[in-house]
Amino acid sequence: MGTVHARSLDPLPMRGPELGVQADDIEALDIEQEPKQEVLENKDVVVQRVHIDGLGRTKEDLLTYEIAEVFRARNLIDVMRKSHEARQKLLRLGIFRKVEVVIDTSRGEDALPNGLDVTFEVTELRRMTGSYNTMVGNNEGSMVLGLKLPNVFGRAEKLTFQFSYGTKETSYGLSFFKPQPGRFERNVSINLYKVTGQFPWSSLRETDRGVSAELSFPVWKTNQTLKWEGVWRELGCLARTASFAVREESGHSLKSSLSHAMVIDTRNSSILPKKGGLFKIHQELAGYTGGDASFLKEDFEIQLNRSLFWDSVLSASLWGGLLLPIGDKPTSIADRFYLGGPTSIRGFSMYSMGPQSEGDYLGGEAYWAGGLHLYTPLPFRPGRGGFGDLFRTHFFLNAGNLCNLNYGEGPQAHLKKLAECIRWSYGLGIVLRLGNIARLELNYCIPMGVQSGDRICDGVQFGAGIRFL
């Protein structure tokens, strides 16, 4: 569930990395940086054969694309490097539990004096694997049970079923994933899912039953995703005290939408990066392929990170979004943006700022949020080189606004409204990185610019999630 898109329920991420050994976890081959290397580099060799031992149900033509570069190596160092890269590609397919590389001189009648044979010894995953783990969302924890059928048809396809039971959300879904041979970044996935979520800040309960189809592919330095989604949404009141505005939104609706996302990510880590940047834009058009929801939704995310002296990091981020209704029908509470809480504008309660009715927050059609952060090591560096490196001291300044717009007015009036009544906060705290999966924050927050109806969390605030402002 996105930080500001709280009402748009998402199924579990079915295309995440497999549990176990990943290509990123593989240690690089140690290559001697001595005169021996010069001798090996200058010695011409020919890779005559590449063998793959241990194949069962995997089709050999799939692996031809992944190992093709090994034949182009012209010296021993190059053979070792390209073999290691091919090993990473084979592991990335998610169909092998283990891949080992053996390089030997060629044998046989046609063996050349400088000929080499490269052998990849692989161990396939079982036909069916199960998993049990916990998942951290934005201020939400859940238990996840999974069942995977890797390499279903022998060409790295994957069939996945997952069930999640969480503090605010319960979901289950079935997903089929198919990569293009030789181009793992190009893939297609089809998802069937049901998600039920509770949103106490709006006294709302939402159940989504949907189907989606995604096409992902790289273009230059970007990752692109095209998606169609059809979802039957059921909205209901979470409490008897729900406001009339929420009760009015209750009922059934059908959304059919086309969306596009583009991501450029040069960060060295998605959780606590020390350098690099992120640029992400997302647009969604609903109503032209059916359904009774009609709107155009645009939002973006920018993040820049720079390493400073004493192992400190300066980070700046900016989010923004706009929701335009199409036709005379107003936008739904399920499609609007939400802001506030420990993962966005700290010092405010979860999604508890902006338009509201009788204490229930209804979301907004336009928003922006910015953050400036300084991450430093713990004072006196306790546990340096080990557990202590998972912690960072955190100083922050957040600001943002969320509102509805009168679309009969011009862009200048819209910008003026977004610039009025800005909420902002500052403070400091401790950040704990949980691997490269999620992070925890314990902050002391001082909210400022509080408007009538906003709920604040003045003082200590705890946050957990994967996406932070």
Automatic annotation (TrEMBL):
Pfam families named among the record's database cross-references:
Omp85 (PF01103)
InterPro entries according to UniProt: Bac_surfAg_D15, D15-like, POTRA
Which membrane topology term applies here?
Multi-pass membrane protein
Signal sequence, renumbered to the chain = none
Q: Name one GO cellular component term.
A: mitochondrial outer membrane
This chain belongs to which protein, by name?
Answer: SAMM50 sorting and assembly machinery component
- Annotated keywords: Membrane, Mitochondrion, Mitochondrion outer membrane, Transmembrane, Transmembrane beta strand
Which PROSITE patterns did the record assign?
Answer: POTRA
Question: Which residue ranges does the record assign to the POTRA domain?
Answer: 45-125
Cellular compartment(s): Mitochondrion outer membrane
Q: Which GO terms describe its biological process?
A: mitochondrial respiratory chain complex assembly; protein insertion into mitochondrial outer membrane
Q: What is the lineage of its organism?
A: Eukaryota, Metazoa, Chordata, Craniata, Vertebrata
Family label:
Belongs to the SAM50/omp85 family.
Major site of localization recorded for this protein? mitochondrion
